[in-house]
Fold this protein.
Amino acid sequence: MDKHNLTILNEFVLTGITDLPELQAPLFGLFLIIYMISMMGNLGLIILTKVDSKLQTPMYFFLRHLAITDLGYSTTVGPKMLVNFIVDENTISYYFCAVQLAFFLVFIVSEIFILSAMSYDRYVAICNPLLYTVIMSKWTCRVLVVIPYLYSTFVSLLITIKIFNVSFCGYNVVSHFYCDSLPLLSLLCSNTHEVELIILILAAFDLISSLLVVLVSYLLILVAILRMNSAEGRRKAFSTCGSHLTVVIVFYGTLIFMYVQPKSSHSIDSDKVASIFYTLVIPMLNPLIYSLRNKDVKYALHRTWKNVSNIFSKV
């Protein structure tokens, strides 16, 4: 098929993760388990941080929104990817492809800045504990999540409209397992320089600005911890940051590997592995990290389970 023949596309073909038939069933089983754990873990965190009275603090408010974004982008990608393992042709409609791209960008960009907000929250908690409740008021917390949601919606609509307003060529095979901006750009017929420049500027701004907030926050936290005289105080300070720092390292490490590596070392397979990691594995890991490393979450889970058991025992 001539890539330069302009046609009206009704659907795209996703290449998927692998074209080896013998791997389809094992990978379907593996990713189904990962997605189910991710869904249950993030839904559990959302419900737990909403209903438990001991978890009504800014830290758990941000954690709830982190779980929402994790659930959002894993659900945007996961179910469709699982369906493609068991159907003969991995197709996605033109409009559903645009919707998938739009929602994926909303949730992934929101997560970047929510992680930054969580870093700032930890900075205030450790460096200004006496003013913590004043600085991190309910209004401040809401602003720190509303702004990322609004900004990510703007970014998502801008990129999606820019890509889908340009003519696609007859070639409709997307070299990925979901509709992402970069694989779609290679299918456009007209000059993509403007769209590529917009994506590059926005991606650089998002990554650098959010990472800067994280690095400065943790640098100030480290200085404050080293100045503490009490070993118990230092241990407690490190423990409050441990879960978030683990999540930040895993998330930003994957994004940096994905987008900052030299073009010469890029390959479709390595990009797919990195995409699997941050679209499916990270949303599964985050609730596990916060539940296994956080005593408050474990106690809240125990209390909630006890209350539910008592309700059912009375029925």
